[in-house]
Amino acid sequence: MLLRSETGESLTAPVPLEIAASYRARTRGLLGRDSVDGALLLSPASGVHTFGMRIPIDVAYLDRRLTVLAVRTMPPGRLGLPRLRARHVLEAEAGAMAGWGLRAGVRVDVYVEAEVAVERECDGEPEETP
To answer: Which of 32, 44, 66, 99 has its CA 20 to 30 A from that of 9?
Structure first.
């Protein structure tokens, strides 16, 4: 996942992303996890809860173009109100989204890892070696 400002500028290095597109995967979300490496995209979704969570999480509500509508931090045991225009929800460990520069108006781009390497080469950035 890459984050882009309103002007299209890349805000961070790529962030690992899991996608929960099935009903079962969306229902499970981050339940039972003690930590998260990157983020989890729930699609489609317009709201979340943190009942049964072990950790506080950051929640970003995204519209159909994957533009951030709002970002909230939710402690365990809370019910987040659904957002009317939200079509997707992004979850991460509390504090992670602020560190990435994720805020209202930022666009989230989802890429397969090989596509990110090609984009870096096109932007003149050296490709990282594993």
So the answer is: 44
Strand, coil or helix: 24: helix
Per-residue HEC secondary structure of 86-125 comes to CCEEEEEECCHHHHHCCCCCCEEECCCHHHHHHHHHHCCC
pTM > 0.85: no
Residues 6+ apart with CB under 8 A from 80: 47, 48, 49, 50, 59, 72, 74
Size (the chain), residues: 130
**CA dist., res. 18 & res. 1, Å (int):** 9
105 in Cβ contact with 6 (< 8 Å): yes
